[in-house]
Structures
1.
Amino acid sequence: MRIDIITVVPQLIQGFLEESILGRAQKKGLVDIHLHNLRDYAVRKDRRVDDYPFGGFAGMVMQCEPIDRCISALTAQRHYDQIIFTTPDGEQFDQPMANELSLCENIIILCGHYKGIDYRIREHLITKEVSIGDYVLTGGELAAAVMTDAIVRIIPGVIGDEQSALSDSFQDNLLAAPVYTRPADYKGWKVPEILLSGHQAKIKEWELQQSLQRTKTLRPDLLE
Ligand code: 6GU
């Protein structure tokens, strides 16, 4: 899978992509992530990519031309399954959307910034508008990082033991059961006896009951 991220602040995402599981996934060739600095596609000498809004509103708006030039340069080279724009008024990102996007061959994520982007880009080039929750961020970079992380970690081979991506909270609409490691007794805080029993069938049953109980208590909406 290939992910192209377009932003005016690539430094915000760069370090995040290079570390840990995402960094290893790229080194292993399981995903190919490219950052594009929108300013490289600026048409003005000062490399600015925004301008005053028509109508006299406050703030600045990202111009059509740099975005169109950047997206066109990419789409001339390969087909993209989705051209995503990050925006607080987009469709809410969730696990099913991450699952669906992880099956794509190529996607573009355009990070929103400033007051917004010229609406004609959204009308003519964007195929999907996504928000990561009901709050406002200064820019779409964190949203792009969140989406990329959630999409890449479920690509087969990215997480060591493939079982673990499937047993996540939300993957089956249930919250995950608690986990423990050594020591079995820490300052008198004890690990549940059943987990030390070695009885795999009973342990599985305990895990499911814990998941159901935690979901019922913490996120009853997931059971509806
Ligand atoms: Cl995708 N962008 C911005 N700027 N704020 C957000 C968001 C996106 N999702 C939630 N808040």
2.
Amino acid sequence: MKLEAVELRRVALPLVSPFRTSFGVETDHDCFLVHVVTDGAEGWSECVAMERPAYSSEYADGACDVLRRWLVPAARGLSDAGTLAAEAFGPAVEWVKGHRMAKAALETALLDAQLRIEGRSIADRLGAVKDRVPTGVSVGIMDAVPALLDAVAGYLDAGYLRIKLKIEPGWDVEPVRAVRERFGDILLQVDANTAYTRHDTEHLAQLDAYDLLLIEQPLEEEDVPGHALLAQRISTPVCLDESIVSAQAARDAILSGACEIVNIKPGRVGGYLESVRIHDVCRDLGKAVWCGGMLETGIGRAPNLALAALPGFTLPGDTSATARYYHRDITREFVIEDGHVAVPTGPGIGVEPDPDVLAAVTVSSEWLRD
Ligand code: NPG
């Protein structure tokens, strides 16, 4: 495969409703797409770095910069040497510390192009074993419990099989109790996005009364030992998200007792190939994984659905239907049917941007050529 050009395309899509987490409120999904043009096919991906480095240290302008300066030139180097393949890209940029979201974006666009040339779907390439995946939904922090109960009722009516509540200090035990009392025996979990400290252990232990599937990333990204201590004190299973940046990190965290469950987000870990390695590590150690989400457009959601169809993904993911995010997405719609979303089957990521919608949501476009 020869790399001819790479486009970094900034887009902004209004969300159907504001999404509040412990690190901010999103009203729009601002992101950038990576579009590669090769001699055989074009490929697309979505970079999940956000505008501000509030979820992790990466941010969109930084990701564009590292792509421009080092990652795209590395892909060009492989192309010039006649060895360009998605599988060769990770090793070629291993010397670049961090910047996993930027790396994931270029690797995925290359993988999309490569698989289109082969006429093969990403689901098949990654080892998917299902043609549809059970789906959950992530419910943001609200101003008051009645609004939360209305939102959860709407999602359950829509068919979602699992509810995840975003929590932070001041919005945790009370909303969980209210949702459990009102909706009974639903699959329920919480996500703190690092909002607590080790001093909150006794407070978090109060959540044990509500039979949660898991508590996700209560403590700082770096505080893996703190999660191990917390896990000894609470009965709710601990799941890690931000802390798990690689297969090695997953193995270490599990073996240290810091988590029972892992949320896999391809952007956070440097791509789909590393995601599969994390899946394999967790499966070997007997731990469940599930697929996270970062409000992706269909360009990012499609390959997430393929990943979520691997055998170790035994819990419903944040792989919700289009209507949970956007009135009009840049790709075809994903719908929920009987609590499940279908895994794309076409070549590559299986979806393409609609040129008119894409043009309407584009903020800027930059072409990187030799
Ligand atoms: O359904 O895509 C979705 C959103 C799921 O809650 C969700 N994502 O921390 O997991 C998270 C959170 C997130 C959203 C993280 C946006 C970063 C950006």
3.
Amino acid sequence: MTRQSLKEFCYQLPKVELHTHLNTSFSDKTLQELVDRKAKLDDNSEYRSWKLTFTENDNCPIDESFTLFTFLHKIFNDEYSIYKLTYDIIHEYAADNVKYLELRSTPKDVPETGLTWPVYVDTMLRAVRDCRAEEVDIVVRILISIDRRKGVDVARQTVSLADRYLHDSDGIVVGIDFSGDPQVGDATDYIPVFQSAHEKGLKLALHLAEIPNFEETLNVLKQCHCDRIGHGTCLNQPSPGDGRKELEEIVLQKKIPIEACMTSNVKTKTVRDYESHHLDFWYKRNHPVVLCTDGKGVYQTTVSNEYLQAAEAFNLSRQNLWDLSFDSINHTFASDSVKSMLRAKWGEVKSKMDISPYGCNS
Ligand code: 6MZ
């Protein structure tokens, strides 16, 4: 199979995206427009010289991502930019044959522009509903993010906000994401917040073990319900104290799906290269993994490209890729009826696709 035909297959494949941050998932075109607009509004051409994406072979340590995110937050700081990001991103995923998207974002309060937390979420919802009214072929759900740099009080307020929208967004807001710089703070402090979110019926997607945070990861996994793990890069490494594989055992036993963001991990140097990505470890154990982009703008990728990279790194066949994509439906935070609708959609496409049993390198 040529690379081109594999690439085409990955594009044609109906897909699910479960781990993507709004402020890092822009297309080049949207970014350009929003940077130009902001430079004009603030009469500051300096914005145009900021580095806002990682290009090909541009591997930077994870801290550089967080520096870059602070620049992005300065650009995307009003209702117009949040609407534009959401609206464009939904169309771009639909164009990549993504049929179900969970978009996550941290609400911002920016007094200068009138942005408040509720305005932020309402703006995202407005864009989702506008796309639905246009009959864009994609189902969209929203997760509200807790930024671990902002402390437990803010996290509690975020859960209250998400709880309100859980009951007042026609089912679009479905859960909570826990993210932010993994080198800052201790996830253990947030355990009561996660427990209360779970009790309220919010789904929980938690960034865990993106770097070797063994202690906090163990505490969270032992004491909290967790619906999905973001990254989980170091879950299968032995713990530094006794060399046991306790994290790995808990995750396997609880069958917690892992959101694998290969390109992001390679570009932020938390993983050496695609071939050494932990996807392989979990996949070989028949453990649920979902291929995701993390930030298709910042890391310059697409969901189709993540399938291509996984196929090439681990010699996955078309059937393997199909199964990965189809199984991802099980790990969405959608209702049972939406899951059934998605399975039927995959079924319609399947007969039209050439799903040979051969590996991509054969
Ligand atoms: C942890 C990350 C992340 O919420 O403003 N974020 N958190 N690890 C990562 N891996 C590299 N990538 C993004 O999107 C940007 C925010 O998402 C989180 C960070 O908190 C970042 O500020 P939103 O839409």
4.
Amino acid sequence: MKLRPDIEAFAQELTDWRRDIHRHPELGYKETRTSGLVAERLEAFGIEVHRGLGGTGVVGVLHGSLGDGPSVGLRADMDALPMDEAGVAEHRSTVDGVFHGCGHDGHTTMLLGAARSLAASRAFKGTVNFIFQPAEEGLAGARAMMEDGLFDRFPCDEVYGMHNWPQLELGTASIRPGPVMAASDRIEIEVKGRGAHAAMPHRGVDPIAVSAHIITALQTLVSRGTDPQDAAVVSITAVNAGSTFNVIPHTARLLGTCRTFRPGTRDRLEAEIERVAVGVAAALGATAEVTYTRGYPPTVNHPGPTGRFAQAATAFLGAGAVSDDADPSMGGEDFAFMLEEVPGSYLWLGQGGDFDLHHPQYDFNDVLLPVGASLWVELVEGPR
Ligand code: NI
């Protein structure tokens, strides 16, 4: 791997920018400071800037100096997570309960680094649209930008995204065609029984006992009902009922997530979660109301752009550093919406380290900043 010399020369600035954003994390759609910094820097590089797409989203438009060519979208996310940071770095979060625990501070900075380099050289054909999106963490900022006319105002022939990946060694990457991240949907189940004195359970219908049966029965939807060659997750992640020792509550509320890759599996699980919850509750004399909310679709890489991204990564990181055999992740990714509309691809860039994404001690690896910025430039300047 050989960094772009110009990017290597300003790598320390990238670290300073990343740490500044890390110190001042902002939640989805509230990235006013971050998007302001982004817009100001793009303008300083001489790039045409459009603010306020999908709330706090920013788009920078740059034309190459080598003539006609494709219009390529490069996307970074800007939002932080609603969690406390447990790390002790000097640049740790200064905002209680808000933390860049997924490295979007690094993604934003890598794309700024690429924009700076490309604006200085303009050694490419066609147009690059630098897309800085809000609210990746569950609030669909990509879709908000698209509903605000992202691809009408800034047409893209291809669109690309990348995410730092702690499970991969620094200096490596993983990319493959087809599904790489799962559809991510929300489950809410309201179980209604009949409240009673805890010493007289026969006078009521215990929604906690009913919930326990529902949770157990839901486990069979994947283990018994889903093709073992397919992949799916049904997790109940919150159980809320009751408040004291001697009262059987009237209701119980369950929350959970459903993750799938195939549209048919998603449709089936949506129907079966309701069937099982309602049926088990009825069998035990209670009722259940299921609200299933579709979140992000699966992230599906298109073959052509995936080949180009893999080629750029191999040219830059070296043969053998880029794999196509990493298993897809059951995590969800907002970039999926963009890939539904525009051909493109999503790459995992190895950053190593001891802590996974969303761990309270996670921190983006600053060594990766010039690496990611150089890879973006390689992709834009590469053959197509
Ligand atoms: Ni993320």
